[in-house]
Amino acid sequence: MTNFSFRYASNPTDVNKYGTNELREQFLIEKLFVENEIQLTYSMYDRYIVGGVMPVGGSLKLETIPYLKSENFLDRRELGIINVGGSGTVTVDGVQYDLQKKEALYVGQGCKEVIFSGANGEQPLFYINSAPAHKKFPNKKIGREDAEIIQLGEEKTANRRVLNKLIVNSIVETCQLQMGITELLPGNVWNTMPSHTHNRRMEAYFYFDIEAPQTICHFMGEPQNTRHIFMQNHQAVLSPEWSIHSGAGTSNYSFVWGMAGENLDYSDMDICPPNELR
Q1: Does residue 257 register a pLDDT over 90?
Q2: CA torsion angle 199 201 202 205 (round to 10)
Q3: What is the pLDDT of residues 182-200, one digit of tens each?
Q4: Strand duo 37-43 + 2-7: pairing
Q5: Where are the alpha helices (DSSP H) in the chain?
Q6: Alpha-carbon distance values, 92 to 47, 95, 133, 271 (Å)
Q7: Which conformational region is residue 167 in: left (phi greater than 0), alpha (psi within -120 to 50 degrees), or beta?
Q8: What is the total count of domains within the chain?
Q9: Enclosing domain of residue 266
Q10: Which CATH number belongs to the domain containing residue 34 in this structure?
């Protein structure tokens, strides 16, 4: 079963007038994992799709949705998959890929059938992102050992973290989709600090490995007019190109960042020093 919803893009001037409920309705994706269902949110930010797949005791097939107006989901799209649960498999046009936790799979434009299943009696949780694609690139699994790893931050500023580049153009060819995982080390809580924006691409953040009753405060908005959204484990947030995307938790955590736009250069960003935020 596939459930889907739609989100319009928001003008920053309008967002300045939003209250808590409106911010959450427009940007927060609260429920990504439901047993034996595929949950999809189609966003007008670069026509990005954010979703979650939770097969329990069987398999789930990725079906097209009305917004795509295509026979198959990937007729004009590419797909990124990151497993954030137990062992699982993804079968693409008859080829099976085994994914452990925090491993990724890139699926190129034009593939007809994508099937998600559990493995070894474990419960996988497949977090998926999709963006429009103009060309087919080869499917590729990216294991933890294949990631480009960058050490960021410092203990003294509570933001020491490990950035794992998974689906990026230096590892796998894509049209515009880029994805990876950032892991905060114990005792560290701040991510993506100093904050930045990048006008040529949007992002989506998915937070996980947050132990109850801990929480995340995701900061968004223009650098001189910031807003915030409190989030729980396994929730995602859309980040417009004009918005910062930083967060702080009441404990350490991990998150998946996904992005799309007209530029694949990861370092293309406009930094906002912490003391200039408002």
Answers
A1: yes
A2: -120
A3: 999 999 999 999 999 998 9
A4: parallel
A5: 12-15, 20-27
A6: 23, 5, 17, 39
A7: beta
A8: 1
A9: 2-276
A10: 2.60.120.10
